[in-house]
Design brief:
Blueprint lengths: L6 E10 L3 H9 L4 H8 L2 E11 L4 E6 L5 H8 L7 E6 L2 E2 L5 H11 E4 L11 H5 L1 H5 L4 H14 L15 H14 L4 E5 L7 H18 L2 E6 L2 H7 L2 E6 L2 E6 L1 H6 L4 H7 L4 H4 L2 H4 L13 E3 L4 H8 L6 E6 L2 E7 H7 L20
Parallel strand pairs: 3-8, 3-9, 6-7, 7-8, 11-12
Antiparallel strand pairs: 1-2, 1-4, 4-5, 9-10, 12-13
């Protein structure tokens, strides 16, 4: 398999219970999660999931507790077997893999970063960082140089002889990331990887991940219960509810065009100026202004442009990407983008921005 791996999930269903195939027939006939439990005592975990996770991008899967996000990520490496559907990695359906090929997939093509670190307490930081390579049968001499290099990259240079209990939570999670990187797997699965960390450390870890991803271009599947984190990290955002994909797409597009009252409620408390980017509200086709107020970067936040403009809504800026002109930003259009879509009067009670599970 290629070092630039893509993942495609097709028509994926998961039903938990003693007769999942029989229960699946009811689900396909239209029965919902609560009905399935009440009438047949089976749990609908996932329903007709179709998601493309593009090579070199971060796909964030999020939703309320019980939405199916952790169930979904465990299908990617077949820790959970689906009731129906396909899971394609670089076009190959991994559900057809036998035990040997599946083991090879997990050891060489995928790494996993866990919420609670999953470090071996009796092994040093260096040995924990090289664990995936050791499991493949490599000696310490084989992986030591790479492990030290990645420990240094994640800010743990000189800590290789320490043991996990001697490190803070943030440092332990850095070991987990170094372990995933030392494995040299093209796919990283991150299940609530930063949820157990204090807010400031969590922000540092997010920044570190984005910095490393800019260089490495891994295919990352990231599970989160926090919308701010999801919007910060995601190239592609998938929002689940009761095992169903409610909406997916580029985060900026979801913010500007929510397609369901559930999503409208979900994003209503977000600071749009801090999250929305110039590229999402600029006009590539408008006539150039006779006297632009200056230039702004396509990936700049609207918050930074507001500060630059001093709140003057009469201004128009030239938008640049990599030093080249790509459009114009009218401050009046920027202000309109800050007004959130109103939820229908009948919409449900607003869920919290940060959630458990």
């Amino acid at each position: 398999m290629d070092q630039q791996a893509s993942i495609s999930i097709r028509n994926l269903y998961k039903v938990f219970g003693t007769q999942p195939l029989k229960a699946l027939a009811h689900v396909r006939a239209g029965m919902g999660k609560s009905e399935l439990m009440a009438q047949h005592r089976h749990v609908l975990g996932l329903r007709d999931i179709n998601v493309d996770m593009r090579a070199g991008e971060i796909t964030v899967i999020m939703g309320l507790s019980g939405s199916g996000k952790s169930t979904l990520i465990r299908h990617v490496n077949r820790l959970i077997e689906p009731t129906a559907g396909e899971i394609l990695v670089n076009g190959e359906n991994i559900l057809t893999f036998g035990e040997t090929r599946l083991r090879d997939l997990r050891r060489k093509q995928m790494s996993m970063v866990f919420q609670h670190f999953a470090l071996l307490p009796h092994r040093t930081v260096l040995d924990n960082a090289g664990m995936a390579r050791a499991v493949r049968g490599e000696t310490r001499a084989d992986y030591e140089r790479d492990a030290r290099a990645w420990l240094d990259r994640v800010g743990l240079g000189g800590q290789d002889g320490q043991y996990p209990h001697q490190l803070s939570g943030g440092m332990q999670q850095r070991v987990g990331i170094a372990r995933a990187l030392t494995s040299n797997a093209p796919i990283m699965l991150m299940d609530e990887a930063f949820s157990a960390l204090d807010p400031l450390i969590r922000t540092d870890m997010q920044d570190l991940l984005l910095e490393l991803q800019q260089e490495l271009q891994k295919t990352i599947v990231f599970i989160s219960h926090d919308l701010d984190e999801a919007l910060k990290l995601a190239d592609h955002l998938v929002i689940l509810k009761d095992g169903i994909v409610v909406q997916q797409g580029e985060p900026q597009e979801i913010l500007l065009n929510p397609n369901d009252p559930y999503i409208v409620d979900f994003i209503s408390d977000i600071n749009r100026a801090r999250v929305l980017r110039v590229r999402s509200v600029m006009d590539a086709g408008m006539a150039p202004p006779s006297d632009p107020a200056g230039t702004v970067d396509a990936d700049a936040t609207l918050e930074s442009v507001i500060a630059l403009s001093g709140g003057d809504t009469a201004l128009v800026y030239t938008v640049l990407r990599d030093g080249k002109q790509v459009g114009y930003l009218d401050m009046q259009k920027l202000v309109r983008a800050l007004v959130p879509t109103q939820a229908p009067r009948t919409s449900r009670k607003k869920p919290p921005t940060a959630m458990t599970g």
